[in-house]
Structures are given as structure tokens and as C-alpha cells.
Amino acid sequence: MTSLTTVRSLRPTRIEIDTGAIAHNVARLGALTHRPVCAVVKADGYGHGAVAAARAALEGGAGWLAVAIGEEGLALREAGIDAPILVLTETPIDAVPMLLAADLTLSGYRAPFLAALAAAGRHRGRPVPVHVKIDTGMGRVGLVPDTWTADLASLMQLDGLVVDGLFTHLARADEVDDPTTDQQLAQFDLAVAAATAAGLRPTWRHAANTAAALLHPDAAYDLVRPGIGIYGLSPAADVDAAAHGLMPALRLVSKVGFVKRVRRGTPVSYGHRWSAPTDGWLATIPIGYADGLPRALSNHADVLIRGRRRNLVGTVTMDQILVWCDQEEPQVGDEVVLLGAQGEEHIRVEDWAAAADTITYEIVTQLTARLPRIHR
Ligand SMILES: *Cc1c(COP(=O)(O)O)cnc(C)c1O
What is the distance between the alpha carbons of residues 348 and 326, in angstroms, rounded to a whole number? Predict the structure, then answer.
């Protein structure tokens, strides 16, 4: 019987991940912040493959891994990863026993959830460590300022629970001159003081995502929690990952699948939104929006063929795109680089994000499972 992996590898369109770059980036973020790194590998390692990203991060010196949901933590354990893993959001209460059995560290912020953790701790006769999320201004989840003093005091009274971490998440750390981050950190300091006054002694206070790790030394506390930066990508248009010594880990490549010469004025693809400006060569590449190449890149991106930038022309279709090669005849089988370097040229995830009016995070997390990930 043919395995799925074998079937997938028939396709020339694939993602290549340089795991050494991830290890480098984790080490770099640790060196820049002088803190242990909690490497965020949620959403399948931001599309890079969670298990490989986690292993590379640990190789780069990460002390912790973080995921968004319980299932992502279980998948890392099933792959044999035994490092500390923090689940960043509350999980369903009925999943708690299974997640604790896998030695995942859970986050909590709602009283019924925290009570359930404490009950689990009493049941097993050993307190459950929890990282309590504080909402200092993200406005999403976490203990809120009006009640956190009382909430933290009541946690001190809960048998079976130990508050081993306190953390918060920053809403505008990527905006260099915005005062919000300083205000959020001041709020966080108040929450830490309230915890201390209540008698809690959290080992890990943490707040810094990638942008804060790069731009706000005050946010480092006991642990930094970068995600996008460990993949070498910029958290925002104004925060250049490369300028901080981070290296992109992902290449997206394919091969020319079809070549034809067309006459000036020949229209192509859905809606005929592009026509050949002169007589010349057109290449068809087997990748489309079903692979996660945004349809918004129609007529708005370049690819690399034979070391040169060529325009993606016409509407991006589900499975194929068209590339104008002008007067240079490409050959079926020529390597096409959609993201990454070829020769002297380089196309960045940041370029796609700008052209598609989105952020690097959305580009890489939307690369679909149809693309095989090859890790080197
Ligand atoms: C996703 C996430 C991070 C990582 O953020 P980046 O901007 O990718 O560095 C850190 N902390 C929390 C709570 C998150 O949800």
C-alpha cells in the first residue's frame, strides 16, 4: 500500500524548513534578552511543523515551549518531547485530567477552571502548578484590575493549586512610540505586587512576545515568550526581524509545470484580469490558494525563476498560478521560489504580507497541510 507521505512527495510544490535557523533565532532571542526562552509553537509551529520547530527550539536553548490549546501540547508529548510545555489559554475543564497526566502546564483565569485544577491537585495528592493570566490591557482573557487583588488572595486559599506563573499579553508592543506597553507593564507590576501581598510566590513572571523581546527590555521579567521571531519573521512592518539578527526558516518552492509563448494582448486566468503586454513567455506553476497562497496576490507578487524576479500575473486559482517570463523562455521543471532565496534574489514572507494587506503570522499559519514540510 502506498503511504500518504509517498503520495505527497510526488508533488514538486513544498515547504523547506531550515531547523538550524529556528535554533539560531531562539539562541539569539535568549542572548538579546538575557532570559530563558519559552518558544511558542502553536498553530503547527506557525505553519513550520510544531514537532520539528519544538525540537529545533530546544536545541537553540529554549527552556519552555508554549502552545495555544491542549491538543497541541499532547501532540508534542506524543512525539516524545519532555520539556516543560505551557498551554496559553484555558482548556475545557473535562480535559484537565488528561492534560495533567501528560504533564502539561496549564494557564487559568476563571474561578471554576482554577477550582477544577485545585480539585485535581487534591485528588492526586500533589498541588497542580498553574500560570495565571492577567489582563493588563489586551482585553481578551485574564484577571481584570477591579478584582485581581481579591482573585489572587482567594487562589492562596485554594488547596491543591500552586501559582507558579503570572503572565500577561501586550497589545501594542510592535508600536515603537506608543505608551500602551509601559502602561500595561505598570499594571502588571501592580498585579505582581497584589500576588506577593497575598502570599503567592510565582517563579515565572512573563509578558514579552517577539516585539517586546526586541523593543522593550522592561518586559523581559523571568522568561520571554516569542513566537513569530523564532521563525525569523517580523512581527510588524516597522519591526524588522533581520535587523535584529533573526533568520527566516521557511522556503516555499515549486517547479515550472507548463510553458507557452503568447501573443501581445492574450488574456489569462479567471476574469481575464491580466493580458500579455508584448509577445513573450508564460509559465504555469502548480500552487494556488488551496495551498495558502493568498488570492490577494493576484497581479501583486513576484516569484524567482532562473535567479530573476518574475511577476505573478492574473488571478491566483485554487491550484495554479501564472508567471510572466517576458522574453526569457523557461523550461518545464525549472525551480520556482515563491518564498526564500534563489541566487541573489530573495522573496520574504513580509513582502507577501504587505501585498496581501495582512501580517506575517497570517501568511505562514495559512499555508495548508497540502504542502509537504521538508525539515533540514
Ligand atoms: C501567540 C502568543 C505569543 C507569541 O507572540 P509573537 O508575537 O508571535 O511573538 C506570546 N504570548 C501569547 C499569550 C500568545 O498568545
Answer: 23
pLDDT tens sequence across 144-172: 999 999 999 999 999 999 999 999 999 99
Query: Is-contact 185 223, C-beta < 8 A?
Result: no
Q: Provide the mean pLDDT of the chain.
A: 97
Query: Coil, helix or strand for 42?
Result: helix
Supply 87's cell numbers: 498551554
Local confidence band at 196 (pLDDT 50, 70, 90 cut-offs): very high
Active site residue 42: yes
Residue with CA closest to ligand 1 atom 1: 227
Contact 349, 360 (CB under 8 A): yes
Positions of E strands within 125-187? 128-134, 161-168
What is the rounded CA–CA span in Å between residue 295 and residue 356? 8
CB 292 near ligand 1, within 6 Å? no
What's the rounded Cα separation, in Å, for the pair 325 and 317?
19
The 3-state DSSP class for residue 368 equals coil
pLDDT in tens, 249-277: 999 999 999 999 999 999 999 999 999 99
Contact residues for 80 (Cβ-Cβ < 8 A; gap 6+): none
Which atom of ligand 1 lies at the shortest distance from residue 213's CA? Answer: 9
Task: Encode 99-136: b = buried (16+ Cβ within 10 Å), e = exposed.
Answer: bbeeebbbbbbeeebbbbbbbbbeeeeebbbbbbbbbb
CA distance 101 to 190: 34
What are the backbone angles phi and psi of residue 175, rounded to the nearest 5°?
A: -100, 105
Q: Is 221 a catalytic residue?
A: no
73 lines ligand 1 (CB under 6 A): no
Kindly list the distances between the CA atom of residue 321 and the CA atoms of 8, 131, 291, in Å, as whole numbers in the listed order. Answer: 19, 46, 11
| DSSP-derived 3-state class of residue 357 | coil
The protein residue with its alpha carbon nearest to ligand 1, atom 6, reads 227
